[in-house]
Design a protein that fits this description.
This protein is α+β, with helices and mostly antiparallel strands. It has eight helices and four strands. Helix 4 (74-93) packs across helix 5. The chain crosses the membrane at residues 48-69, 75-94, 154-172, 184-202. Keywords: Membrane, Transmembrane, Transmembrane helix.
């Protein structure tokens, strides 16, 4: 999702582009403005989508509260609410590390039609989405009212524990023998697992773009000009 947003920001070179103009590229101020615009737009859009998707686990958690008043559904409902809240926590406070933008030079592109395949130009260069592996280190947002030690432990264990709760509730739903349509409704044992799956997918798609490679490109171009 983030990669698609950045691709749409660039205008892809066509066959009629002037090669001399491509090599000349943008001046330093234009490059700085472009990188700043891309970074701020990607960050703000990612934050907006994250807030909107946070309603996915929070809404069923609210509707699950009345089921706590029944003895037969109190414990499963409590586990389901804990799973929904854990999914919302992971989505908002535990974003995955940014994806770096790989840089290629347009002169390295051959004549086999590779010019138009998802590559934009900045000063005679293009980008490839993404080429650098993500960092294995878990990044997290500052969490209010929670100490750093507790937040670190939550960042480490909340997703696997949540997955275990989702599996447990799904097994309980299988024991009940209800249909799939009932299991994915509020109070159903399959719903926490479905929500968790969507949240894990959304976390991967909502990674922001790391513009460090474009910054290096701008600095390298400035040093060459001087």
């Amino acid at each position: 999702m983030a990669a698609a947003r950045l691709r749409r920001t660039f205008q892809y070179p066509s066959e009629s582009d002037d090669e001399d103009a491509v090599e000349q590229g943008m001046d330093e101020q234009d490059q700085e403005n472009l990188i700043s615009t891309l970074s701020s737009r990607d960050t703000s859009t990612t934050r907006l989508y994250t807030l909107l998707l946070s309603s996915l686990p929070l809404a069923p958690a609210v509707f699950q509260i009345p089921l706590l008043l029944r003895i037969s559904t109190a414990i499963p409902s409590l586990l389901a609410i804990a799973s929904f809240l854990a999914s919302a926590y992971a989505l908002y406070f535990l974003p995955l590390p940014p994806v770096k933008v790989g840089i290629i030079h347009l002169s390295d592109l051959n004549d086999s039609g590779a010019k138009g395949k998802g590559k934009g130009k900045v000063g005679g260069y293009g980008f490839n989405m993404p080429t650098v592996p993500e960092s294995p280190r878990q990044e997290r947002q500052p969490v209010p009212w929670i100490s750093d030690d507790v937040a670190d432990q939550l960042a480490k264990y909340i997703v696997p524990v949540n997955a275990g709760i989702a599996v447990l509730l799904a097994l309980l739903e299988l024991v009940r023998g209800r249909s799939w349509s009932e299991g994915v409704m509020v109070g159903g044992g399959y719903l926490p697992g479905v929500v968790l799956s969507v949240v894990l997918w959304a976390r991967r798609e909502l990674r922001v773009m790391d513009m460090s490679e474009l910054e290096k490109l701008k600095i390298g171009s400035s040093a060459k000009d001087t």
